[in-house]
């Protein structure tokens, strides 16, 4: 292909990317907003129809954590994860196609590299799942304590227990943040 044809193909691809990027963001934003709204409604309906035994045994911090964390992940985390995944996928596919077209012998090296990469991802996902579980478990008591502090602030002020309560809040914050550094 002459160099002019390469330039035309490149220009068309850039134009296509420029036109589809705002469409992609608006489509993703609307779907994520709808998903967060549906999840929140389902959680609220489930919580309002649950038994009193569940409400008595489950700390309020765990319930608030579930509402805030799940909706936040759909609002922010999931949208960015999907966009980054698509960008990375298209980048990898285009790089592989260029490598394979220019040097077909690259396929011999790609097979073992793909296997090693698969094993690393498997190990990372298992460890990441456990770290998220621990982080969620350490966050619930903090939400519970914050709810108790807000409800009992007049008592805390009346008995001059502010410094002791703040010491407990900071201790629980340290526990939450220590799990996020893993």
From TrEMBL:
Any GO molecular function: ABC-type transporter activity
Keyword annotations: ATP-binding, Membrane, Nucleotide-binding, Transmembrane, Transmembrane helix, Transport
GO CC list: membrane
Keyword Transmembrane annotated: yes
InterPro entries referenced in this protein's UniProt entry, alphabetically: ABC1_TM_dom, ABC1_TM_sf, ABC_transporter_C-like
Ranges that cross the membrane: 6-27, 107-124
Keyword hit for Membrane: yes
Residues in ABC transmembrane type-1 domain copies: 1-182
Pfam families: ABC_membrane
PANTHER family (UniProt xref): ATP-BINDING CASSETTE SUB-FAMILY C, FI20190P1
Protein name (database record): Multidrug resistance protein
Organism annotation: Lygus hesperus
Native organism taxonomy: Eukaryota, Metazoa, Ecdysozoa, Arthropoda, Hexapoda
């Amino acid at each position: 292909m002459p160099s002019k044809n390469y330039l035309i193909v490149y220009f068309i691809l850039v134009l296509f990317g420029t036109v589809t990027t705002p469409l992609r963001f608006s489509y993703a934003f609307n779907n994520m907003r709808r998903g967060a709204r549906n999840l929140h409604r389902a959680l609220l309906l489930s919580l309002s129809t649950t038994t009193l035994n569940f409400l008595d045994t489950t700390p309020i911090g765990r319930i608030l954590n579930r509402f805030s964390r799940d909706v936040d992940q759909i609002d922010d985390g999931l949208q960015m994860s999907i966009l980054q995944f698509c960008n990375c996928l298209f980048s990898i596919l285009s790089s592989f196609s260029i490598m394979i077209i220019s040097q077909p012998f690259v396929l011999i090296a790609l097979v073992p590299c793909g296997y090693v990469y698969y094993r690393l991802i498997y190990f990372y996902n298992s460890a990441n799942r456990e770290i998220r579980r621990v982080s969620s478990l350490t966050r619930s008591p903090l939400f519970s304590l914050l709810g108790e502090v807000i409800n009992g602030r007049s008592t805390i002020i009346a008995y001059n227990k502010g410094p002791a309560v703040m010491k407990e809040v900071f201790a629980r914050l340290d526990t939450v943040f220590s799990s996020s550094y893993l």
